Automatic annotation (TrEMBL):
Domain named Glycosyltransferase 2-like: residues: 9-176
Organism for this UniProt entry: Faecalibacterium longum
Record-linked Pfam families: Glycos_transf_2
Designated name of the protein: Glycosyltransferase
Domain of life: Bacteria
Keyword vocabulary terms for this entry: Glycosyltransferase, Transferase
Keyword Transmembrane helix: no
A GO term, aspect molecular function: glycosyltransferase activity
Coiled-coil ranges from the UniProt annotation: none
Transferase is among the record's keywords: yes
Enzyme Commission code: 2.4.-.-
Length: 321
């Protein structure tokens, strides 16, 4: 028995999700870990989301509704972090939902392993809850260092290690980190910053987060802005990795960014954004080419500099894994 169970703050950013919000909140109220603070941040929703939040708050005092002008996902998450009183912090997107045992399992894994973060796998599902087959790279319970987690960001299916919501964070990890306001792909800018602070990260193999696939969602809309901001986030990660001598991550992040750049097309405004991120990439490539070793990785980034078209063609020819 726990002498005194710590409070876990779960932050739910809300925007225009009245159709899905009840299922999301019901999944939190059904958690086996009862010591929850559920901070629901209405980011200027034009629908009835605020009314739903207030109704749930009347039913359960653990729900704390907050309302603000629309500022985007990062602004809503940051507002939740500022309001949080818990020793541990988690995030749940308002059109997704979680298994009843998720936060208890993550908390206990973190405490048992002396970890500052716990991460689980997640399942892709349709809006009506039908599973969508995916193979997760998270296949066993294990404990990794923060550096090892950063290296996972350079591996296959790295998005399982990038996302902010399939995990539980020790509160102190937010002392110097906030999500970048106004950016898409906000997790690309922050995942490495959290891992760098961790001595240990507990991995739980079970998929306890249900990631609902919505048509038209950020993750499914291949816009130029999405590609450009994704590239910019990866290049910031490459810069951080170079500074801290995690060179495999620096090369992988740079190549991920270059892949976004070569497949992005747009009008004059988009072309200006592309030029800026291309200049950012050129500066990173200059530094990468001076790193000792990594001959194969250097060839890849040098090919981009020689001909983005050839680089794009090479990406298209890669075998599907």
């Amino acid at each position: 028995m726990d002498a005194k169970k710590p409070l876990i703050s779960v932050i739910v950013p809300v925007y225009n999700v009245e159709k899905y919000l009840p299922k999301c909140l019901d999944s939190l109220l059904a958690q086996t870990w009862q010591e929850l603070e559920i901070i629901v941040v209405d980011d200027g929703s034009p629908d009835n989301s605020w009314d739903i939040m207030q109704e749930y708050a009347r039913r359960d005092s653990r729900i704390r509704p907050i309302r603000q002008k629309n500022g985007g996902l990062s602004a809503a998450r940051n507002a939740g972090v500022e309001a949080a009183r818990g020793e541990w912090i988690g995030f749940l997107d308002s059109d997704d939902y979680v298994a009843p045992e998720m936060y208890e399992r993550l908390y206990r894994a973190a405490v048992e392993q002396g970890a500052q973060m716990a991460v689980c796998s997640f399942a892709y599902v349709t809006p009506d809850g039908r599973p969508i087959p995916r193979t997760s790279p998270i296949t066993k319970n294990e404990v990794l260092s923060g550096i090892q987690m950063m290296e996972r960001l350079a591996g296959p299916q790295n998005w399982y290690y990038v996302t902010a919501w399939n995990r539980l964070y020790q509160r102190r990890l937010f002392d110097a980190v906030r999500f970048p306001v106004g950016k898409l792909h906000e997790d690309e800018y922050t995942a490495h910053l959290f891992y760098w602070q961790c001595e240990r990260v507990a991995i739980v193999k079970e998929a306890m987060y249900y990631y609902v696939q919505q048509d038209g969602s950020i993750m499914h809309t291949e816009s130029v802005r999405k590609r450009v901001e994704g590239a910019a986030g990866m290049l910031e990660r490459a810069d951080f990795a170079l500074e801290h001598e995690v060179c495999s991550l620096a090369f992988a992040s740079c190549n991920g960014a270059l892949g976004c750049i070569v497949f992005a097309k747009g009008g004059s405004e988009e072309r200006q954004a592309l030029r800026q991120v291309r200049e950012q990439a050129d500066r990173i490539i200059d530094r990468l080419l001076r790193v000792p070793g990594y001959r194969t990785e250097k060839v890849k980034v040098a090919l981009f500099r020689l001909s983005p078209g050839l680089y794009r063609a090479a990406l298209k020819m890669r075998p599907v894994r």
